[in-house]
């Protein structure tokens, strides 16, 4: 189906809870402000809904401060869903509740088993392949497990290297359309996007690389005017959403939702 990597009828999000101050972070630049985070999150959900998508809004998950970042728990494809096994042990308990949610949309929800580790933030699905970046959260066993499970639906998995010091592969990239990616210069220089068109983030605006193409919108973090201008000049409809609080926990636009079209 053309455009299945950028066109979606559904999304799942989860509210940030009061425990968000205990969320994981690579560098401590202060705790997120819950009220501001929730305001940004509401804007994000509004952006998804504005495209006509049905958004399932889950309550905060007690005991799991990072559960707002639902993307790491599952990969939703047109044919079925695959539950991840997060590399951060404190996040593995988020998965069962998401599996139950996804069973409301899919007949088939497969599971990555221990000891493999893989998180959705390291997975970029395009029209032609699934790219998976190795990171501190995703290992080769996780990639191999994903390959075994997804090949039944005709997918090819390609392993790529995540830049040193970067949490997730998609921290540095996102899909803009069937043939185009938004990427930082450091990731583009690796050659991993050979055969794709590339729009590079502006110098000093590398944190804008984690955006999402959701139907007719490119939803990106606010505060990166030169990259936003590049996207607009390239013909994309841009919607900026505040991300200052999620960024304190290494989170971005893709982390905050699962995006999919369930089987008919």
Commentary on this structure:
The chain has helices at residues 34-49, 95-102, 140-150, 185-188, 225-233, 244-247, and strands spanning 10-14, 54-58, 74-76, 81-83, 109-111, 123-125, 130-134, 157-161, 173-177, 180-183, 197-200, 212-214, 217-221, 238-241, 258-260. The chain has a single domain (10-260), classed as L-arginine/glycine Amidinotransferase, Chain A. The chain has 264 residues and is an alpha/beta fold. The mean pLDDT is 96. The strands form five sheets. The protein has a three-stranded mixed beta sheet with strand order 2-1-15, with helices on one face. A three-stranded mixed beta sheet has the order 3-4-5, with helices on both faces. The longest helix has 16 residues, at 34-49.
Strand order of the largest sheet: 2-1-15
The proportion of residues forming helix, as a percent range, comes to 10-25%
Q: Strand share of the residues?
A: 15-25%
Q: Based on DSSP secondary structure assignment, what is the total number of beta strands?
A: 15
Give the second-level CATH assignment, the architecture: 5-stranded Propeller
Give a short account of the largest sheet.
3 strands, mixed
- How far do the termini sit from each other? 13 Å
Task: Give start-end ranges of low-pLDDT stretches.
Answer: none
The overall number of domains is 1
Structural class by SSE content: alpha/beta
């Amino acid at each position: 189906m053309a455009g299945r990597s950028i066109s979606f009828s559904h999304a799942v999000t989860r509210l940030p809870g009061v425990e968000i101050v205990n969320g994981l972070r690579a560098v401590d630049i202060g705790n997120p402000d819950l009220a501001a985070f929730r305001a940004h999150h509401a804007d994000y959900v509004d952006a998804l809904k504005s495209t006509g998508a049905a958004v399932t809004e889950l309550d905060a998950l007690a005991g799991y401060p990072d559960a707002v970042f639902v993307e790491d728990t599952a990969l939703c494809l047109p044919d079925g869903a695959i539950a991840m096994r997060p590399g951060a042990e404190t996040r593995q308990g988020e998965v069962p509740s998401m599996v139950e949610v996804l069973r409301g949309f899919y007949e088939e929800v497969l599971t990555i088993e221990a000891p493999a580790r893989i998180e959705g933030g390291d997975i970029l699905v395009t029209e032609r392949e699934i790219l998976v970046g190795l990171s501190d959260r995703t290992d080769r066993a996780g990639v191999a497990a994903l390959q075994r499970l997804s090949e039944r639906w005709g997918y090819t998995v390609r392993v790529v290297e995540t830049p040193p010091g970067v949490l997730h592969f998609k921290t540095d990239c996102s899909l803009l359309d069937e043939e185009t990616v938004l990427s930082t210069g450091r990731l583009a220089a690796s050659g991993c996007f050979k055969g794709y068109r590339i729009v590079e983030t502006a110098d000093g605006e590398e944190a804008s690389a984690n955006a999402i193409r959701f139907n007719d919108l490119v939803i990106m973090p606010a505060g990166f005017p030169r990259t936003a201008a590049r996207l607009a000049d390239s013909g994309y409809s841009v919607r900026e959403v505040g991300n200052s609080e999620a960024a304190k926990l290494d989170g971005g636009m893709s982390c905050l939702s699962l995006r999919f079209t369930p089987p008919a």
